[in-house]
Design goal:
alpha/beta; Immunoglobulin-like; 2 domains; eight-stranded parallel β-barrel; six-stranded antiparallel β-sheet
Length: 454
Amino acid sequence: MIIRTLLTLFLPLMLLAACADDERAITEYPSPPQTPEWAQNATIYEVNVRQYSEEGTFEAFARHLPRLKEMGVDILWFMPIHPIGEVERKGSMGSYYSVKDYFGVNPEFGDKDDFRQLVSEIHDLGMYVILDWVANHTAWDAVWTETHPHIYETDEEGNFIIPPGTDWDDTIQLNFDLDETREMMHEALLYWVEEFDIDGYRCDVADRVPTDFWNEARRRMDEIKPVFMLAEAETPEHHEHAFDMSYGWETHHRMNQVASGEFTLSQFEAHLAENREQFPDHAYRMQFTSNHDENSWNGTVFERYGDGAEAFAVLASTIPGMPLVYSGQEAAMDKRLEFFEKDPIEWGDYSLLDFYTRLLHLNRDNKALFNGIHGGELVRLETTSDDQVFAFYREKDEDKVIVLLNLSDEAVTFEIDSAVVSGSYTGLFTNSEIRLSDRDTREFGPWEYAVYHN
């Protein structure tokens, strides 16, 4: 009798779980995902709201929107805007990535009406908004620990655990083996698209969450509006159904190694080719010299690249992929921003504003630098000093960009051994017309660069 009763109680639940698993397995998802047309030549900018101004609010950030629009920014990626956990908090203000309530707004920044107004202002300027989303884990005192404690992973004693293999001890691990966890997280993702008209997400540690979760999330969001999805990962299968863009992490690390002399330019050229082969043609890759992780934990661009910081920014902005600018880079920010404390950016005179404006507008206007299959392939140009000079061109339809970089701390004299460069161009940073020929002898100082476009 007891066995029959237990079967009566649990059989429907077992069948429901089996049906859910079957649905995950048989659901057909668009492949590739339908990337919004506006992203084809888009650029991206990471917003650190806390450190962006003395006030650290949405309203204060909004005053910078016209400048960012003029600079050539299309997508504004906001680091997490949700309330931060207080239990096991790191520092006095805590980490954005310790989320207490997925449906709330961090009161440091303002309230929901303030955020809704900000999104509206951004859209009015023809720009787009993606939110940083932390799906893998929550704060210790997250709302769900009270209302749905069973959706978390636990140890043998039933205690919450931090994400395995990490030191993220201000967070606890969600259990994505449960359909309820997935459903709750999907509802939270849909909420900000439906209620605030955001345009997509940057998904934190995306490869720690099952890919089929992201596939279903993308399908549901696209039913509301076309969204843009960025994975903080370098996982090719993410691009099959869920993500438009992924991090160029390995390329970034290789650039750091080139700057320090640990990686040759021939090795870097081979890396670019190998990395591109790993991903489908439609995949966008995000290229950068800095972001919130690199700046706070590994050093400023000037610590890592020295006097070559601008040269590597040119490289990151002209190789295949979408260029990212992190908050403060246009002001030549030379400090590591505190992660768990208030530490405002020192804006000064925006000394690199014109530099980034030229690079971002070139990305938007010249088809050779468009994203994914919409842009041209990178073809390296042989020079008489290939151990120091990284020269290449990209071409699409009638558009062409030629990039010459001395990626060394020594002056170099060189010639380009290819007639493909011959023609008339405009210097990106000089605005002057120039006639290029493979017979020209060029002299570049340490870390000197030049970009030419037709």
